[in-house]
Amino acid sequence: MEPKIGISKENLGGVAHALNKILADEYVLYTKTRNAHWNVEGPDFHSKHLFFESQYEQLDEIIDSVAERIRSLGHYAPATLKSFLELTHLSEVLHNKNDGTGFIAELLNDHESLIIHLRENINIFANDLKDLGTSDYVTGLMETHEKMAWMLRSHLR
């Protein structure tokens, strides 16, 4: 059934399409964080292993939340690796050295890129697509990523 929530069918489609891209970014970032968790090496292995685990657990919750937001707007969420790679603006970078600092710098770059992307879309959701709920939701996502980026950045000082 089509949701009757005061947003036109066309705008719901636009919101869902934009959220599909955000979901893809979140999934790629989750996978890269899992990679860091599994493959980090060095004298700080244990602390970084646990740190990356806490980050991918947060991302797992975000992924589910974004997909549910898409579904609540009457659309299907993409759910294949192929679709995520087609939709994401992040890249799958293969890390040459599996040290904590390298993984952290790479993940920080992705979080900051995602923060910028989210920030650019907040007003589009509210003003252009007339969806204040998604605008508010994306603002919360941005704030979560800002905190996650701060945690990553603090390891590099």
Automatic annotation (TrEMBL):
It holds the Pfam family Ferritin. SUPFAM superfamilies: Ferritin-like. PROSITE patterns: DPS_2 (PS00819). Residues 18-157 form the Ferritin/DPS domain. InterPro entries: DPS_DNA-bd (IPR002177), DPS_DNA-bd_CS (IPR023188), Ferritin-like (IPR012347), Ferritin-like_SF (IPR009078), Ferritin_DPS_dom (IPR008331). It comes from the Bacteria. PANTHER family: DNA PROTECTION DURING STARVATION PROTEIN, GENERAL STRESS PROTEIN 20U. Belongs to the Dps family. This is Dps family protein. The lineage of its organism: Bacteria, Pseudomonadati, Bacteroidota, Sphingobacteriia, Sphingobacteriales.
